[in-house]
Amino acid sequence: MLSPGCFKMLHGPSARMATAPYNYSYIFKYIIIGDMGVGKSCLLHQFTEKKFMADCPHTIGVEFGTRIIEVSGQKIKLQIWDTAGQERFRAVTRSYYRGAAGALMVYDITRRSTYNHLSSWLTDARNLTNPNTVIILIGNKADLEAQRDVTYEEAKQFAEENGLLFLEASAKTGENVEDAFLEAAKKIYQNIQDGSLDLNAAESGVQHKPSAPQGGRLTSEPQPQRDGCGC
Amino acid sequence: MENTGTTEVSDHKEIRQEDRSISDETDTGRDQPHGVELTPRSDMAKQDANSDKTVVSEPELTESTSGDSAGERREAVSMTRKRPESKAPTQPVGTEQQLLGEAEKESSSQAAGSWGYWGNWGKSLLSTATATVASVGHGISQAIEKAETSLGIPSPTEVSAEVKLFDGKGAEFDEAESSPKAQSESSSPTSGAFGMFSTITSAVQSTGITVLSGGLDALEFIGKKTMDVLAEGDPGFKKTKGLMNRNTTLSQALREAKEREELLVADQVSEDTEKKAHYGMLFDEFQGLSHLEALEILSNESEGKVKSVLHALSGQDVENLKEELEAIKEAFSLVEFDEEEEEEDNGGDGSEFVKELCELLSELNIATTSDKLSKARKNAHDRITEASNVLSAQPEESEPEKGQGPRDEAKSGDLNKVQKYSVENIHTSAIQSLAELTARSIEQFHKVAELILHSQDPDVEALDRAKTLSKVTVVLCKEVASLSKQFTSCLTALGATEKVEVLNPLITGVFLEASNSATYIQDAFQLLVPVLQVSQIQSRSNTTTR
């Protein structure tokens, strides 16, 4: 059992009762990680608002965005945690990794250092999320081809070696931004379908909203203990 | 309890106790461990009163939602609870009559179960009020929700009888309710309980603005009473006190409330105005839930750190540190509302609020600004201004229509529609404003937590920060109260000709969400306790290593 008291909100999906259809069937928690200035917040903004944010302030700790997407006819609500890239916030932002179903690991194709730091971000992501968390590598600022410092091929190879999805995108033009979030969602959904992602596992990062009531046992199970210590 | 999963058994032991203690006192506590069903259901009551069209479909909706969950709960109840008096609510059947009957029954059992405990409410509860905000909040919501469900029901005679009661006793609700005389005046404890609320609202409606603050006080007072009820089951709040024991998390409860609202809204295929008045969904749209969740994460982790540091120390070190940490914790319980001050008008446009907030935040000496809160306050102000404009435009519009003769009736019907639209608009604006301000307040606390945690060597003592944050909380809660007053004033003024059944639920709704907002803000504030304790430990170790 993982430490109690944390992350109750996003796991234990079937423990949560739902009695009627929602306007979405799943909630996926995403995190966006990567060095400062690679364009994490801009990617999120482009995804949720379909706009490019030219002068984006430094993120403090974490900010949020949500959007409902559709995968295989299923409406999925993405709850996206956009973490601060600044090193000084690293300790705080690490707290937010757990319970993520998907992680967008972003680097800047025009700054090699942001690519070089990927292994450190990947280590954090692997250590702090569950093994089924889908990680997608995003090379941002693909519109700045002239200033390219990291080739598509080497990044692709890095992704393959580490079992990551990979895309180059541009928050400015919007190119591949939609796909970045969608590809990860598809993969997560596929994991749910083929059973490799157990929705009942703690911190799967996925909440399911079943259309029919289920899991009645779960509601009654904890109750006897209630009697035991209440009086 | 069903929402917390099965993996955290040890952590939940305490919480279950807490739930149980609540349920012993307030009958409905058992059926609604988190009290989350309330918001949607109260909304339903509102819609029942407001829209003739939905009257037919509402009861069915209620049956399908509350029926299912009630069914599950009942199953659980029958397995575990054997107290004869704790009868499960009867299965609602598809007619409105029966539905209302159920609500009445629930209310009556609640009133019978808890009213007796409310005698000694006069003692100061303020100091404890902040410690258990989450549970209290739900308690309040339950009480209010019951009241509101009932608002549409009482017959005119009942209402007028209760108004008499009110006139006689003034604001001394407690006396009126707890004295046997009052009990006999109303036909049963049930109508006594109803009486209190419908009295408040009808008085508000008939006498206008001046009584509004009384209505708000009454809400506060209900909250205090709920505290007392809790205290009965949990003396000294031993189980309830402290973050470690009450981590069932507000965000979770709120999330569920929001989900239920979503569910309702989805089923209604309703127009935008309906959707906008759902506090929980709006709160989530402003990312209030996410920030609360993140703040909870930081709070829990900090708490773990504090515990492990205390473990690692020994002897005098432990005692010293404990003392320091206790001092910080105490700074968090100092939040008290100066009622006098609350009465004073702060100009209405919130500029005073923004100024005060800026000053306090700069005292914290962390890189946080009140921009978003100021924006939220400005939006609220704009909405109030807009509402006032509608208000001042109203008489001019209606004057020339007076002389229309035979078509008068049809016209006044039209006018009613216009008014109803406006009243509901103001209600929507109020709920929106409260949800936004609350979400931003929680975001502010979350940012404060992040910044405090990352600053390794604070220039400001953790204790001083705690005191400042306590002031921030007071400022925020006052602003919530002030906003709700302004909005309900608008409602009362504009809805003067409105039917009681239409106006009352709207006004109650605003008061309810204002009360909830203050609760959420105070709860988020309490989540900062361990964060500041960690900061204290950090600055301590920094000085010793030097």
From TrEMBL, chain A:
Reaction catalysed by this enzyme: GTP + H2O = GDP + phosphate + H(+)
GO cellular component: cytosol; early endosome membrane; phagocytic vesicle; recycling endosome; trans-Golgi network
GO molecular function: G protein activity; GTP binding
Essential cofactor(s): Mg(2+)
Pfam families: Ras
UniProt feature coiled coil, ranges: none
Keywords of this entry: Acetylation, Cytoplasmic vesicle, Endosome, Golgi apparatus, GTP-binding, Hydrolase, Lipoprotein, Membrane, Methylation, Nucleotide-binding, Prenylation, Protein transport, Transport
Subcellular location: Cytoplasmic vesicle, Phagosome; Early endosome membrane; Golgi apparatus, trans-Golgi network membrane; Recycling endosome
Domain of life where this protein originates: Eukaryota
Region described as Disordered: 204-231
Xref: Gene3D superfamilies: P-loop containing nucleotide triphosphate hydrolases
Single biological process term from Gene Ontology: defense response to bacterium
EC number: 3.6.5.2
Main localization, broad class: cytoplasm
Membrane topology reported for the UniProt record: Lipid-anchor
Claim: Disulfide bond is one of the keywords in the record: no
Enzyme class: hydrolase
PANTHER family: DRAB11-RELATED
Family to which the UniProt record says this protein belongs: Belongs to the small GTPase superfamily. Rab family.
Protein name: Ras-related protein Rab-14
The species this protein was found in: Callorhinchus milii (Ghost shark)
UniProtKB/TrEMBL annotation, chain B:
InterPro entries hit by this protein: DUF719 (IPR007998)
Ranges of biased composition (kind: Basic and acidic residues): 9-34, 70-86, 400-414
Compositional bias per record (Low complexity), positions renumbered to this chain: 179-191
Compositionally biased region (Polar residues): 88-98
PANTHER family: FI01459P, PROTEIN FAM114A2
Family label: Belongs to the FAM114 family.
Stated name of the protein: Protein FAM114A2
Lineage, uppermost ranks: Eukaryota, Metazoa, Chordata, Craniata, Vertebrata
